[in-house]
Amino acid sequence: MSIECSPLALPFPALPAIPGVTARVARARYKSWDRCDLTFIELAPGTAVAGVLTGSRCPSPEVEWCRKALPLGEARALVVNAGNSNAFTGNRGRAAVEAIAARAAAHLGCRPSDIFVASTGVIGVPLPIDKAEAGLDNAFAAPPCSWEDAAATIMTTDTFAKGAVTRAVVGGKTVSLIGIIKGSGMIAPDMATMLGFLFIDAAVDPAFLQAALGDANRKSFSCITVDGDTSTSDTVLAFATGSAGNAVLAGDEDDGADAFRAALQDLCHQLAQLVVRDGEGAQKLIEITVEGAESDASAHRIAMSIANSPLVKTAIAGEDANWGRVVMAVGKAGEPAERDRLAIRFGATQVARDGLAVEGYDEAPVAAHLKGREIEIGVELGLGEGRATVWTCDLTHGYISINADYRS
Amino acid sequence: MSIECSPLALPFPALPAIPGVTARVARARYKSWDRCDLTFIELAPGTAVAGVLTGSRCPSPEVEWCRKALPLGEARALVVNAGNSNAFTGNRGRAAVEAIAARAAAHLGCRPSDIFVASTGVIGVPLPIDKAEAGLDNAFAAPPCSWEDAAATIMTTDTFAKGAVTRAVVGGKTVSLIGIIKGSGMIAPDMATMLGFLFIDAAVDPAFLQAALGDANRKSFSCITVDGDTSTSDTVLAFATGSAGNAVLAGDEDDGADAFRAALQDLCHQLAQLVVRDGEGAQKLIEITVEGAESDASAHRIAMSIANSPLVKTAIAGEDANWGRVVMAVGKAGEPAERDRLAIRFGATQVARDGLAVEGYDEAPVAAHLKGREIEIGVELGLGEGRATVWTCDLTHGYISINADYRS
């Protein structure tokens, strides 16, 4: 099947080189396609690493490998396979990850635990070790590639390559944070997987990097949803080389810590948005803000209840100002809410207040807002100070076509 | 828009009269349609009542009214409005319910709290009191109607009228339990609503009826899902007239209590299945059984995670034996599960065991099973004795068309 580029796509940005980070790509031919599908990213000795991994109870062996290696805090390379997720493959899947790590470690003269591995694609088929090893050998011999090539090589059925960049001043040095990500594409018969990789030239202590990434994740990757389904392979890794020459950032009292946290948050936010913009069948990007909840966590759960509601998402697809479905989604979230305090807006227009439609409600400005590509829904609960913003896309015939009509 | 009858529809069964229960229908014209949309069901004095109501935090005033009246345990009439749910309408919505109850109570010479009211349809528009009162007056004057007419009058965009019957022997008497239900139809711009009404000729104490209905609900209405969205108006009410002449059933030690509970369970099961069979856009009925969980509740949550997964539901729509998506849905449920003990079957065919595809897995019998109308998915967790079965339908272009393409 051929899928057109998402109408919400953004062009790939100019990403700076990060000294100590070298990307190479190769054809492992995990599927019968003629494209690069193996990415090998070499990292200078001393690179710090942090990560967030899927909460799935049925994770891929790659996820288990990364979970074990992360506490060591150091990385020398990242290997990403596209076309085969290696998930649910038992001992043979574990053996494939071990073989990849061993081969890359031998090439670099480092420990296998310094090699991070992620895979995305078909489930239930062990990653073929011979193809992985041959692909790796080809990658070792390949010339360095651009960030855009690397971002394209980790894609499965994403419709555009995704990257982002931001900067911060840390201890008097300007540091760069860049990232590439793939997600919300689909290879039947498979679930979408989000894989994101961040590369930073600042010197950052792994524990501090982990804390900052965890916080940034909570307000970015954990705030997006396409269909409420969670992959067995979701992985976000951050690598910090230290080449910028700043004094190592190790705690919130250090000079530039706030700026670094803000920049990391910005980068994660940008990357998360790109995934929603490539949501399967997406025609509209939807931002949902819930305020006045009893807590931020409660606001988040209500916002995700709205964002995952098929009825809300189909209404937006139909450009229908169906605020009743928002009420429904608030009501079913199971969180504290009082119908008669609830207020709802679409874009800048208040549609309901105090539990009923506003007097003289005029649908015209709402209808105009809903014709756009970027839709805002605001909910005010009137109970407390809790707030959260999440992002999703609309639910369209394109989603059904991608996931039901076409078989591998 | 015109919607064809669901391919999963069943014919309306022959339902016996329940002495003391008289249904009448009328045109209140809540929408600009020429069909009966108000149902008035008179109940003999002394009729016991029990009910289960939506857990939504934003319920309709009808739901609040029923919640308040249920503990009194007695009912003299049920009024059902179709075409306007009266939800999210503030004080004006409450006034409409009070007016309906007052008028019906005056007609019957009973307390307003003996009148039960349910409404389904457009949200955010107060139910017009003048239409409701005129409709009621017409209904009082109308001749009794058939159960099929009553079942058709409570429909919104359901594609077929739904009813069921079962019997039990209680204290030496054969008693009849019948029910009508509507649900999973949709009136844009609105959410689907499930309204179910059971009529029983046995004499049953209200507290025992409530306990039995609660148990039956947990294994029937609480085990179905079309899209994971919960209406603000979901209501199931059971009325027992006592006309069968049995000694009042008041506890589990009474003669026939087990048979009565089993029959009530059977009736609720039948009615719940009918709702899934009329799921929006449904082409296939899917039964999901989870076994070997740590508890029944855990099994239920995992089964609902599978049943609500858009990726599983689109795979079934595409007749795709995509067991990887079932693994994904088990993994994301957040319940105890061990990947390497997991076994999955489609129909009678085992596809995965011990966390990977079965040796020599042959997709042919699975593909044949998936071409049918009734699909079975089995998951064995290998952890304990917990089990649950839930029902859903596939997710098709029809769902998108009903909920996005057509505006009111």
UniProtKB/TrEMBL annotation, chains A, B:
The keyword NAD does not apply. CDD domains: OAT. Its EC number is 2.3.1.35, 2.3.1.1. Pathway: Amino-acid biosynthesis; L-arginine biosynthesis; L-ornithine and N-acetyl-L-glutamate from L-glutamate and N(2)-acetyl-L-ornithine (cyclic): step 1/1; Amino-acid biosynthesis; L-arginine biosynthesis; N(2)-acetyl-L-ornithine from L-glutamate: step 1/4. GO terms for biological process: L-arginine biosynthetic process; ornithine biosynthetic process. The record marks T120, G121 as: Involved in the stabilization of negative charge on the oxyanion by the formation of the oxyanion hole. GO terms for cellular component: cytoplasm. It catalyses: N(2)-acetyl-L-ornithine + L-glutamate = N-acetyl-L-glutamate + L-ornithine; L-glutamate + acetyl-CoA = N-acetyl-L-glutamate + CoA + H(+). Pfam families: ArgJ. It is found in: Cytoplasm. SUPFAM superfamilies: DmpA/ArgJ-like. The active site is at T193. Keywords: Acyltransferase, Amino-acid biosynthesis, Arginine biosynthesis, Autocatalytic cleavage, Cytoplasm, Multifunctional enzyme, Transferase. InterPro entries: Arg_biosynth_ArgJ, ArgJ-like_dom_sf, ArgJ_beta_C. One of its GO terms (molecular function) is L-glutamate N-acetyltransferase activity, acting on acetyl-L-ornithine as donor. Substrate binds at T156, K182, T193, E280, N403, S408. It comes from the Bacteria. The record marks A192, T193 as: Cleavage. Catalyzes two activities which are involved in the cyclic version of arginine biosynthesis: the synthesis of N-acetylglutamate from glutamate and acetyl-CoA as the acetyl donor, and of ornithine by transacetylation between N(2)-acetylornithine and glutamate. Heterotetramer of two alpha and two beta chains. Belongs to the ArgJ family. This is Arginine biosynthesis bifunctional protein ArgJ. It comes from Sphingomonas leidyi.
